[in-house]
Design a protein that fits this description.
There is one protein chain. The protein folds into 2 domains: 170 residues, Sandwich (Jelly Rolls), CATH 2.60.120.10; 155 residues, Sandwich (Jelly Rolls). 4% of the residues lie in helices and 37% in strands. The chain is built from 2 helices and 22 strands. The strands form 4 sheets. Strands 4, 5, 6, 7, 8, 9, 10, 11, 12, 13 and 22 form an 11-stranded mixed β-sheet that branches.
Amino acid sequence: MENFKASGTYTKQAHVKLPEGTFEEEHGRKGFFGRVSHLYRTNMPTDWSNIEGDLKPRNLPPLFEDKGLENKLVKILFNSDVEVYLGSRTKPYETFFRNADHDELFFIHEGEGKMETTFGHIPFTKGDYIIVPRGTTYKTYFTKPLKVLKVESRSEFEEPTRGILGPNALYDQTAKFVPEAAIGTEKAKDYPIDIRYRGKKSTVTYPFNPLDAIGWKGSLYPWKLSIYDYCPINSHRYHIPPSGHTTFVAQNFVICSFVARPLEHTSEGVLKVPFFHSNIDYDEVLFYHQGNFFSRDNIDAGAITYHPQGINHGPHPKAFQNANKNEFTDEFAVMIDTRNPLEMTEAFSRFENKDYWKSWMKK
């Protein structure tokens, strides 16, 4: 059993009825899954007057409208476990594709179409997560231009355990879409497949459509889930930590879904906004999909925030002012929490909002 201690001024329940004049900071390990303490501070831990050096909160404004980024996927963050991309598409894909390096997760920020795979066809629309196991051959067709967040993983994307919540929590298994066997619809003279292996491209061309499987069986296959079918854990008396919104688990990182939900009851004295935290084991990346992101200032749909491990982060000051006015949140966002530190690419540095860290400072 944990050697739990307490000292000084504190509250009986974390995030509830904070001592007057204090700001609660969660000091935790293992990305909200491990041991934790709470500090009751007399100042906001993000109320800094200056930051020098590389460790600071970072932000990418929406990039999808940038003409230089059309019809390509742009890597923005990476480590040995995971790579994060943003991309848009207005022109048809010319080739089939197979990733021999990574399992893939696509989050459809905007757009509509279908992905034809060796296992069958997966129709998709705004808000869909599509899981594509490594080595799957596919081609994407769309009827509305695409804006996509893509996450590539060295390990498989697995579902979280539900524990005492039971197997139907978060989303029922019938909310998942699994393709029925179907062959590819494209007719052509040649069918090239671009295959990525060790970061390089090889092209294998067939005289027939390579999506020619008339049946399949097994436990490894592509599937999809809509973020709009995700059922969040709620409590009117307690602010659920980010770990309670885990949607996919991979080696050394998780992906969480923040969706529209009722907020905690003001009458219970519950902290409504995300609590301050100095999560010292995980980097945190948030992709803002849609809604009113009331815990952040000047964040638009399609933006990215990146908070490296070791720097305090939490809601902007205005969020505290507005929190009690709201009874629900209508925001939808995708969070990527990584055990190992992420590296920023040149593209991230080029488009970054360099003054984002200043947005917590008093004007």
